[in-house]
Design a protein that fits this description.
It is a single chain. The chain has 77 residues and is mostly helical. The N and C termini lie close together (12 Å).
Length: 77
């Protein structure tokens, strides 16, 4: 992973912490980065798993907030 890519992901995780309150630890961030190639929905599930929040019992609003945040701050390229 390049320095630019690391910085772009760092911005995405900072936004996730600031906007949604999910402040992931480095291992959690790695899980989300690894899930991204499988699609946005896989990355959203990885966020919940990394935070220890049950995806199935979470509200639709919370799932949507995480998805919208990731989508808005997804690194380009």
């Amino acid at each position: 992973m390049t320095d630019a890519s690391e910085a772009a992901h760092a911005d995405m995780f900072a936004a996730l912490c600031r906007e949604v309150g999910f402040c992931l630890h480095p291992k959690g961030e790695k899980r989300v980065r690894e899930a991204l190639p499988n699609g946005l929905d896989a990355a959203v599930r990885a966020v919940f798993d990394a935070e220890g929040v049950d995806f199935a019992s979470s509200t639709g609003d919370l799932r949507r907030a995480v998805r919208d945040c990731l989508k808005a701050h997804l690194p380009q390229g």
